[in-house]
Amino acid sequence: MNFQDRHVVVTGGAGALGAAVLDALLRSGAWCHVPLRSAQSVERSALRGNPRASLDVVGDLADEAAVSRYYDGLEDLWASIHIAGSFAGAPIARSDESVLRNQLESNLVSAYVCSRAAVASMRKRKTGGRIVNVAARQALEPRLGSGSVAYTISKAGVAALTTALGAELAGEGILVNAVAPSIMDTPANRKDMPDADFASWPKVEEVAAAILFLASPVNVVTRGAVVPVYGKA
Q1: What is the pLDDT of residue 1?
Q2: How far is 167 from 128, CA to CA, in rounded Å?
Q3: Which residues pair with 227 in a beta bridge?
Q4: CATH class of the structural domain 7-229
Q5: Residue 71 is a catalytic residue
Q6: Average pLDDT in the 26-53 region?
Q7: Cα angle vertex 133, ends 129, 136, to 5°?
Q8: Residue ranges of domains in the chain
Q9: Is the pLDDT of residue 85 over 90?
Q10: Most CB within 10 Å of its CB: which of 58, 73, 216, 220?
């Protein structure tokens, strides 16, 4: 996909999937804007010094005021890709209200707040744009959320956000979609599940390719979709 000189925000850029998306975008000619939680995250980023990657300390992406200030400072925004989030895998007996609130804020509220700010920025251009969220397989198949109910609820919310907002913005040429990955092949997941069949897991580069298509100008008709990216799992 050709993103030559298009400006794209990528949240969650410090993670494995975020890094894969950023690598693909930069190779496709994009200008990448990466909001990070702390100065330490900026210092650790492999993109430090890359002239086409802007690393900025924004803090909590569920903080609407901070996020709005960040997006207000962007010009000519084409796409906003929302990967930031967290996972809490615990049964309900060990998941009190604070766990649920954390999952909702880190996964759903952050996607909502960033989507809202991105729409305001894209409307300045009046030429449309793209928003891509990251849900999860549990959002489409909630029975798989046994043992991680709080996480499943939050990602189901991301899926609903995507579908509803996709319908709301279609007339403006702002296409909103999401991917719903199964467990992805990352070093952290391999360490946590050493006996799993790694070959069945989708690679982060493969999931990144799906995200890039949805965020690209090549996509002119897909909106409101939550696309399964399960690999062979």
Answers
A1: 81
A2: 14
A3: 179
A4: alpha beta
A5: no
A6: 96
A7: 155
A8: 7-229
A9: yes
A10: 216
Residue in this structure with the two tokens 């999931």, named with its chain if needed: 207
Asked if residue 129 lies in contact with residue 122, where contact means CB atoms within 8 angstroms, the answer is yes
Q: Where are the alpha helices (DSSP H) in the chain?
A: 16-27, 39-44, 64-72, 97-103, 110-125, 137-140, 149-169, 187-192, 204-215
CA-wise closest residue to 67 among 48, 82, 47 = 82
Beta bridge partners of 203: 185
- Each residue's pLDDT tens digit, 92-142: 999 999 999 999 999 999 999 999 999 999 999 889 999 999 999 999 999
Sign of the four-CA dihedral 201, 207, 209, 214? positive
Helix, coil or strand: residue 34: strand
Nearest to 3 by CA among 59, 58, 53: 53
> How many other CB atoms sit within 10 Å of the CB of residue 218?
10
Read off the amino acid at residue 100: L
Q: Which of 70, 71, 112, 151 is catalytic?
A: 151
